[in-house]
Amino acid sequence: MDLENLKYPIGRFNLEQEIEDRQLSKLMKDIAILPHLLNDQIQSMTGKQLNTAYRPDGWTAKQVVHHLADSHMNAHIRFILALTENQPTIKPYQEQLVANLPFIHQMPLEVSLDVIKSVHQRWFFLLQSLNLQDFDKTYLHPQYNRVYTLRQALANYAWHGKHHLAHLQLIK
After folding, report:
1. Measured CA distances, 18 to 15, 36, 95 (Å)
2. pLDDT 10s digits, 156-168
3. What is the number of domains present in the chain?
4. CA angle, 22 as apex, 168 and 76 as ends, to 5°?
5. Which of 12, 17, 19, 106 could be a cystine partner for 151, CB 3.0 to 4.6 Å?
6. What is the pLDDT of residue 1?
7. Domain assignment of residue 60, yes or no
């Protein structure tokens, strides 16, 4: 498998795609189901596999799970900000640096699995409470100097969960 397929086993996210109303419930279900799929995948892995990177210079399975917890906590907060402020500027973070902080390597995997489960439950409840116009609310991502609608953000994070789940499935 070439490096591009190792980096993006389900393909790259297409930010330019139109996210139609009819797609929203499927994307919300993707958010709801990720913790279960992730837990099943982690339970099927050995200790050696959990400490194995999915590609050369990639993260280990443990780092991927801890990253998902960090990323999706931020995503949930970004949604809340977009819903309560007029196009807020969100705070990006250096995910590569976070993934290599000492606590990430020392923390039990169950801590991040619990975070993912709880954040996704909250996020799903939030998503279900929204009307269609709410998904058109926006935030500014200063790292990319780009405005994202919550439709785009939802599609991106649904993809993000599947993307990293596919990374874990690459580890043999």
Report:
1. 8, 28, 27
2. 999 999 999 999 9
3. 1
4. 50
5. 19
6. 77
7. yes
Domain that holds residue 118: 22-170
Please answer whether residues 116 and 34 qualify as being in contact, where contact means their C-beta atoms are separated by less than 8 angstroms: yes
Query: Is residue 84 in a domain?
Result: yes
Give the 3-state DSSP-derived string for 55-74, with helices as H, strands as E and coil as C: CCCCCEHHHHHHHHHHHHHH
Residue 5 lies in a domain: no
Question: What's the CATH code of the domain at 59?
Answer: 1.20.120.450
- Tell if the pTM clears 0.85, that is, is over it: yes
Contact 160, 71 (CB under 8 A): yes
Residue 14 domain-assigned? no
Q: Bridge partners of 139? A: 148
Residues 6+ apart with CB under 8 A from 67: 59, 95, 98, 99, 164
Question: In terms of Cα–Cα distance, which of 155, 139, 129 is closest to 31?
Answer: 155
Token pair of 29 as six digits: 């279900």
pLDDT digit string (tens) for 127-157? 999 999 999 999 999 999 999 999 999 999 9
Which helix (H) or strand (E) covers residue 138, if one does? Answer: strand 138-141
Measured distance CA(11)–CA(48) in Å, rounded:
27
